[in-house]
């Protein structure tokens, strides 16, 4: 099974060296997989894929024919994280979400971090997702980012780095949970013998996080999940989570506002809503405040929110923390607010609005990844080493035109993981990790996260829209 | 329950019922073409198209897909037919997707795989080789689905909306199939039998009437039978009961327009016979009945889905829907 496996020059999650010894926490797995022929493995794979399609665990592909749905490709070889490593990640992620929340409170209130010269006010206020409407507003329990999905990668030495923080509506947690179910079915014995920490408590924890925010004391809060609708690519995830939490999934048209309160429309009349887990960007939330053409939102919602009659998770205005320029300052935030050294480092980042950095970026486009500050999903990106001269020239123009909007990072050779590839081969493919962090009464991180894998040979882009797949992620109990 | 959810459950079940009725209709038409021995009996197909109100969209479709477009294919698969069986499945499944958390896992799995099957080339291949086999598969699925509705979810408010959708659709389709008999001036025995079979009611007719298959008897049976589950009266009586179960209002009175209209149509049917129908004229009677069934559907929507202020102002929804789809992406 693994006899032709090439580790090459990358950090490999499983193999310490080519063909040779694996890391201790992968020993069980290797033994089990070596008893399988590649045929058997592919048979298992087909069964799992068929199950996903039949259950409709799919995402919608945009710009394709009517309602094209695909399964998110799933790889049967799980990624394993030993307990000691996970503890480090937990501490690092906890530190980070604390700092981000303090930062968000600060920039919408006292602006201490700006006055103390740690972050230029310009950078904060020109962020596309900065919401002046939120200045001076006290959000429920003073928490802004309740659900966070930071993307982690490992460099050539196996060191974990944070690539970005997703503090708006991070998605993917349903795949994490479904991958685990599929894995348990495909390898029951291996799973049982591996002492893996469970993940299925996530929906309960999420509901607890939401209930924590309710403005109405003394009764069971009415929580709802607000979805853009059935055509959204993450719609499966929305119904999945609502169902597991036992709450209503609503669209904007199901809600109305009356005298500063939000109600849902039922066959028995109007029912007051306390907490909205919204999977809808700020822009679409309320046509009377943000995008006026939004038909997905609820007119008057912001008014109810600002009066404190309804809570939103995540809060409005958290997008500032997702801005890739803000990202570069997170280590400084940690030092500033918490007086600690960052446990997890950032990828070194050049900011084009600094003159020196811009000079460096323009001179080294070939070896850098250039990203637009507010794009996601692998869009608006220049991959220096594989780019054409024309693409580099186009990006150079864009950078000069709007320096605030671009950052540059050295290409990190992401760690690789053995993955089942076409033509019956197991080869190394690049992976990242998106853990999910919940911030309610307590901070809870679901053990592991969604491991995304770039299925195309040599590719570093793991996004599902660009040919990425995923793996189950096992955090071991010991 | 959320108004939108009630609406989706209603449509989900309507589309499955529609698929089943279309399938029975097209299966019988296929059969009839065989009986007559002609290669492609245009008349049979014309009356089938007439029954499902698709004469116009068929003509449009031939403009796109060519004059030799098979009517059977048109009803079963054609993408230019807004009401094809394949599309009914897609729409049923789309509605189910919106309320996935409200229906049972089995309902979703079965409906989703039926939809995937109807979408596949495999279904078309089977249809080419042996249309009857495909139609049997479809009807089988629909019956299975009915069983799942009966046996795997709570019989609560949502279930009542599902049932209302089913019975209104069935009343509508039975009346349309009957209308085939008014399409031609003379109906032979074979045509009368076809109509009964399209409603899956030949054996039931025989045991209830024990008499000749005549135009009057067929009308009496499919309109007024008290115990045949596809007669219009039976469907409306069920609808009436279901609506009262939803509102909690005792029978014989009404709490909203949906109940008032249903009750009055039902009362009128309860005290009519086929002679009254003949004096009004078969086609005229069916025509009136259909608009009343439509009105019930509309009133249910206004009562349970719209807010009172919106009932006045439901124009321009099409444009809104388009925008709604785009922004979600």
Overview of the structural elements:
With 478 residues, chain A is an alpha+beta fold. Helix content of chain A is 31%, strand content 22%. The longest helix of chain A has 25 residues, at 83-107. The two termini of chain A are 27 Å apart. Chain B has 2 domains: 1-153, no CATH class; 154-311, no CATH class. Chain B has helices at residues 3-36, 42-51, 55-65, 71-76, 85-98, 105-119, 121-129, 131-152, 157-183, 189-198, 202-209, 215-224, 232-247, 257-270, 274-280, 282-304, 308-311, 317-327. The longest helix of chain B is centred in the first third of the chain and has 34 residues, at 3-36. The two termini of chain B are 27 Å apart. The mean pLDDT of chain B is 88.
Topology:
The complex is a heterodimer of chains A (478) and B (329).
Chain A: H1 27-34, H2 38-55, E1 58-60, E2 69-71, E3 74-81, H3 83-107, H4 112-115, H5 121-125, E4 147-148, E5 151-154, E6 160-164, H6 173-186, H7 188-193, H8 202-211, E7 223-226, H9 235-245, E8 248-250, E9 255-258, E10 261-266, E11 269-272, E12 275-278, H10 282-285, H11 301-306, E13 311-313, H12 319-322, H13 324-327, H14 330-338, E14 345-346, E15 350-351, H15 355-363, E16 368-372, E17 381-383, H16 389-401, E18 406-410, E19 416-421, E20 425-434, E21 437-439, E22 443-445, E23 450-454, E24 468-475
Parallel strand pairs in A: 3-24, 6-14, 7-8, 7-12, 12-13
Antiparallel strand pairs in A: 1-2, 4-21, 5-6, 9-10, 10-11, 15-18, 16-17, 16-18, 19-20, 20-23, 21-22, 23-24
Chain B: H1 3-36, H2 42-51, H3 55-65, H4 71-76, H5 85-98, H6 105-119, H7 121-129, H8 131-152, H9 157-183, H10 189-198, H11 202-209, H12 215-224, H13 232-247, H14 257-270, H15 274-280, H16 282-304, H17 308-311, H18 317-327
Helix pairs in contact in B: 1-5, 1-8, 1-9, 1-10, 2-9, 5-6, 6-8, 7-8, 9-10, 9-12, 9-13, 9-16, 13-14, 14-16, 15-16
């Amino acid at each position: 099974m693994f006899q032709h496996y090439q580790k090459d020059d990358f950090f490999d999650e499983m193999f310490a060296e080519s063909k040779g010894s694996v890391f201790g926490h992968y020993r069980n797995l290797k033994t089990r997989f070596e008893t399988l022929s590649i045929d058997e493995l592919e048979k298992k794979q087909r069964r799992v894929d068929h199950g996903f399609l039949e259950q409709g665990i799919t995402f919608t592909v945009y710009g394709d024919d009517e309602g094209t749905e695909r399964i998110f490709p799933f790889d049967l070889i799980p990624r394993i994280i030993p307990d000691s490593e996970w503890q480090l990640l937990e501490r690092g992620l906890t530190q980070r979400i604390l700092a981000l929340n303090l930062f968000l409170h600060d920039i919408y209130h006292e602006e201490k971090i700006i006055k103390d010269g740690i972050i230029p006010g310009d950078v904060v206020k020109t962020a596309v997702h900065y919401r002046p409407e939120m200045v001076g507003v006290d959000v429920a329990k003073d928490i802004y980012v309740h659900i966070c999905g930071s993307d982690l990668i490992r460099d050539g030495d196996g060191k974990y780095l944070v690539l970005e923080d997703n503090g708006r509506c991070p998605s993917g947690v349903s795949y994490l949970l479904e991958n685990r179910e599929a894995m348990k079915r495909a390898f029951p014995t291996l799973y049982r013998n591996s002492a893996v920490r469970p993940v299925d408590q996530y929906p309960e924890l999420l509901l607890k996080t939401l209930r924590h925010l309710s403005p109405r004391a003394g009764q069971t809060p009415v929580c709802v999940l607000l979805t853009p609708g059935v055509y959204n690519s993450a719609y499966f995830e929305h119904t999945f989570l609502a169902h597991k939490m036992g709450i209503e999934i609503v669209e904007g048209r199901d809600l109305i506002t009356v005298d500063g309160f939000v109600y849902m429309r039922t066959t028995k009349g109007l029912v007051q809503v306390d907490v909205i887990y919204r999977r809808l960007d700020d822009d679409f939330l309320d046509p009377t405040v943000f995008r006026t053409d939004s038909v997905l939102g609820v007119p008057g919602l912001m008014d109810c929110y600002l009066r404190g009659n309804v809570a939103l998770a995540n809060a409005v205005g958290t997008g500032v923390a997702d801005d890739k320029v803000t990202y570069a300052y997170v280590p400084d935030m940690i030092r500033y607010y918490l007086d600690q050294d960052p446990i997890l480092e950032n990828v070194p980042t050049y900011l084009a609005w600094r003159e020196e950095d811009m000079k460096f970026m323009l001179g080294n486009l070939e070896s850098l990844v250039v990203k637009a500050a507010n794009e996601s999903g692998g869009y608006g990106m220049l991959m220096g080493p594989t780019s054409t001269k024309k693409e580099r020239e186009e990006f150079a123009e864009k950078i000069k035109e709007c320096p605030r909007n671009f950052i540059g990072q050295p290409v990190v050779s992401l760690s690789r993981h053995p993955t089942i590839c076409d033509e019956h081969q197991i080869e190394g493919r690049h992976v990242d990790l998106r853990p999910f962090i919940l911030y309610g009464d307590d901070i809870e991180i679901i053990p592991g996260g969604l491991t995304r894998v770039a299925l195309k040979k040599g590719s570093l882009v793991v996004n599902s829209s660009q040919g990425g797949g995923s793996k189950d992620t096992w955090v071991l109990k010991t | 329950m959320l108004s939108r959810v009630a609406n989706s459950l209603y449509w989900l079940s309507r589309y499955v019922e529609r698929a089943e009725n279309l399938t029975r209709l097209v299966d019988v038409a296929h059969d009839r073409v065989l009986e007559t021995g002609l290669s492609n009996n245009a008349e049979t197909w014309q009356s089938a198209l007439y029954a499902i109100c698709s004469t116009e969209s068929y003509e449009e479709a031939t403009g796109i897909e060519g004059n030799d477009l098979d009517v059977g294919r048109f009803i079963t698969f054609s993408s230019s037919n807004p009401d094809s069986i394949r599309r009914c499945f897609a729409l049923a499944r789309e509605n189910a997707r919106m309320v996935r958390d409200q229906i049972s896992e089995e309902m979703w799995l079965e409906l989703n795989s039926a939809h995937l099957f109807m979408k596949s080339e495999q279904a078309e291949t089977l249809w080419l080789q042996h249309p009857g086999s495909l139609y049997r598969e479809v009807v089988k699925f629909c019956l299975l689905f009915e069983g799942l509705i009966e046996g795997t979810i709570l019989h609560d408010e949502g279930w009542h909306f599902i049932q209302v959708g089913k019975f209104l659709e069935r009343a509508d389709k039975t009346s349309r199939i009957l209308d085939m008999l008014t399409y031609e001036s003379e109906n032979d025995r074979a045509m009368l039998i076809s109509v009964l079979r399209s409603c899956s009611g030949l054996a039931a007719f025989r045991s209830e009437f024990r008499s000749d298959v005549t135009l009057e008897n067929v009308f009496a049976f499919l309109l007024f039978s008290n115990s045949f589950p596809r007669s219009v009266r039976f469907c409306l009586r069920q609808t009436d009961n279901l609506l009262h179960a939803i509102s909690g209002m005792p029978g014989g009175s009404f709490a909203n327009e949906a109940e008032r209209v249903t009750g009055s149509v039902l009362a009128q049917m309860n005290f009519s016979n086929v002679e009254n129908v003949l004096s009004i004229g078969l086609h005229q009677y069916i025509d009136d009945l259909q608009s009343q069934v439509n009105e019930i559907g509309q009133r249910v929507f206004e009562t349970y889905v719209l807010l009172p202020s919106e009932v006045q102002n439901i124009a321009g929804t099409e444009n809104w829907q388009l925008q709604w789809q785009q922004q979600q992406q």
